[in-house]
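To whoever is on call:

I kicked off a structure prediction for a single chain this morning and the downstream step that reads the tokens threw a length-mismatch warning. I double-checked the sequence; it's 209 residues and nothing unusual in it as far as I can see. Pasting both halves so you can look.
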Amino acid sequence: MYITKPIRTSKNGKTYQSILLRESYREDGKVKNRTIANLTHCKPKEVAAIEFALKHKGDFAALPQTLPSLQLQQGFSVGAVWTVYQLAKRLGIEDALGTGREGKLALWQVMARVIDQGSRLSAVRLAQTHAGCDVLGMERGFDENDLYENLTWLSTQQEAIERRLFAHRRGRQKPNLFLYDVTSTYREGDQNELAAFGYNRDGKKGKKQ
């Protein structure tokens, strides 16, 4: 591949220069050329970068010597964040939570649990390697304290969020079938202040629930 910069003159005398990325190939024993991309509207620095890459395409090992100040740096991971974000939009989760800062923090907590299940601190660390703030459009970062405070916000907004999720899923159509969980649990030991004796569906006598 190579870059060519042909110049043409119009009928009124004006000259125009095109910047084309081209390649040579052989067909039926003849050498032909074809245009891969039109780079005319690219910035000069972008064209220069492509020319530099083509010039050294067979000798990348020598690049560090050519550019001693060149440093390679791993960017933010985008794929998983973007995929889960699109799914959240499709399911109406983003609309239900809202696009304010608290809504975005709540959405990130949901996304972080899908991508890498962990604590609030792990969600903060995940945002340091993934493009969560960029994808969600958060102008400033956050720490685990922000996420814990966000849980309080979620608890106060729970009913409204559930209503918006239901409206997104069902609209005005009322469901005619409800599914609910009847799982029961019991406690070993008697030092849990939240446990109490009651009807034990599992038949575990003497066990608090």
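Update from on-call: the warning came from a stale cache, not from the record. Cleared it. Sanity check on the structure: The chain is about 40% helix and 10% strand.
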